[in-house]
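Q: For a teaching handout, I want to show students what a protein-ligand complex looks like in token form. Below are the inputs, and the small molecule is dioxothiomolybdenum(VI) ion. Please produce the holo structure.
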Amino acid sequence: MTSVIGKKTPRVDGPLKVSGKAMYTSDHHFPGMVYAVPVCSTIANGEILGIDTGAAEKMPGIRAIFHRENIGRFSRATVNHEFGAGMSRIDETRAPLEDDVVRYYGQYVALAVADTFAQAMAAADAVKVTYREHKPNVDERLAPETNQKVESERGDPEKAFAESEIQVDQSYDLPPETHNPIELHASVALWDGSAFTLYETSQGVVNHRNVLAQMLGVPKENVRVITQFLGSGFGGKLWPWTQSALAAAAARQLGRPVKLVVSRRMMFQTVGHRPRIQQRIRLSATRDGKLTSLRQDWVNHTSILDDYKENCGEATAHMYSVPNLRITSALARRNVGTPTPMRGPGAVPGLWATESAMDELALKLGMDPVQLRLINEPKIDEGLNLPFSSRHLKECLTTGAEKFGWTKRNPKVGSMKRGGLTLGWGMAGCSWQAARFPCAATVELRDDGTARVSCATQDIGTGSYTIVAQLAAEGLGLPLDKVEAVLGDTRLPPGPLSGGSGAAAAVVPAVLEAAGKAVDALLALAAHAPGSKLAGRTASDLEYTNGRVHPRGEPAASGVAFEDFLRLGSVRAVSGVGSSEGRGAFGTTKPAFSSHSFGAHFVEVTWQPEIARLHVSRVVTVIDAGRILNPLAGRNQIEGAVVMGIGMSLFEETSYDPRNGAPINSNLADYIVAANADVPSLEVHFVEFPDTNLNPLGARGIGEIGLAGMAAAIASAVHHATGVRVRELPIKIEDLLIEHPGHIS
Ligand code: MOS
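A: Here is the structure, written as tokens, with dioxothiomolybdenum(VI) ion included.
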């Protein structure tokens, strides 16, 4: 058997997806099912004075109009951030319809349930809600707050800054961004009189079950959560949102299955977003480019109810060697829905600012930006004072520079041309935490010659089914097509969130251990396999190799196939359970290493000032994420993240109407994401240094790292082409036409 680990492996669930057989949440239909449509508040700040359901209740097909008085009781979930089977985390902590106070536009105030979706929509529209309205606060300027908190600190950054000849002091702004996976959030809820079955769009079925059981007031054994396929999440589906509790409560009240699909407009209101973030970066260096100080002070908006902190300093304290550093955070409360993690939360916005500032520093020094990064490479994580488990940023920088042809770059702004276009070349480094969640998994060997591996993690489109199957195939020495992977159901052994790029690293040790234990259970059958030529032997006399049981030390061919061995013993299947503890940021013990993935992006833009056309024309990305389990899925993850980076840099921005607090571009015509025409062919390389401190194969997660640093690389390329330094995303054509002093450097 040759190993399937590290081989380009097409998705094992690909045929189900392309044939339409894969069941996404809203594909589930049940007899007697009814449809729920929330009524959304049309103010962002105020109180509900009355809800008139009279007209709506008389409409055809209506089953109920639920509101605070008649939905039944919801409890708040107690928040337990510890990763694992007991985790219960939710970002909007208020239970739906809990009180009559409206704190953001679109907050659910009632729920119409009818026999058809169209009837429910019409009824929701006919519910008349009266409000006392107050002026909402959605101010874009996040004024300096009094709640500043020091996140990391070393040395004396004020003194070092004041004494340095070379200084950068700039602010970098990021607008709110909205997750826009193709699949809308949805809940299909069933109640059988004592227990719930919830089909959900979830990046974490175990956490979802734990939260919903508390909100609905039933033991967690009485809630089953299923997410077989997810049309992506990007973090927006990590934790439950209010529609899930509403659908479940309606199912219980009506004794019928209830389907609730959140609309695209509601996606901008009620299911989280990346908050607005403003960061001030102060950097100083010696004349030869050694960093002497780094300060990062950020403020992000959060909701009225909840303290969501975007951890923008995630990568700052370990990225470069700098003796004097301080990172502070602050929150600014606004009348918006509660923000939530969005792909690379913290590090992605943080690196937009710090890597942009590094480029500005390189310009002041007259130094190549790659060189500036290379000479500030740290020996250890100076923030945690820990050795790195594995750090190969240098290799990413040098490999990327070589593949891109960086030495041909003329640093003079606007000096590079090709075919009548002005070229801009920019680059940035990136980093994202590498950690692993606690995980359990079961592997079963069956008498039909196949194996089954199961785990209550989920495949959110990233390729988890495939790598879980690969790991079981590896552990059992079986071909991949003999392995069935089953995920996305809380009835399975508790598995990790599909988030934080922590699932891949988590399933490696658990699945390998489960496979080993399944083999142990198989060998223990020896004494019970009377018909076999191996009968009477003890387990320790036997060995398992590539699907065959044979006498220890003898060739595999001398033994019997495992399925024959099972049948001779009249056993249908044997199984083993593996489990592994969390490690790094997702573990419970103090880490021995600083674990991160690293990378570098090299970007070319073309600029045509005559027609004001800016285009990203080439991207080379090099990633250090340890061992790559499946290069096909791996490349796909990085490409997707780079595409998202183009969107973040050039298009994405959620705009709130200051008059009523509504996110006004709440649709895919007005909220622009990168489309095919915006994306050149992308080059992705992995420098493979297995990180065996994280798991036996040395694999790290790769879901988020590819987005980190992209915005800084693009903004730097835009500066190189145009001479305009944009410090407020997204970069707009207007920024490049209006040459006001603040923008030129
Ligand atoms: Mo990621 S933002 O943890 O899905």
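A: Two things your students might notice: The first helix runs from residue 14 to 18. DSSP finds 17 helices and 28 strands in the chain.
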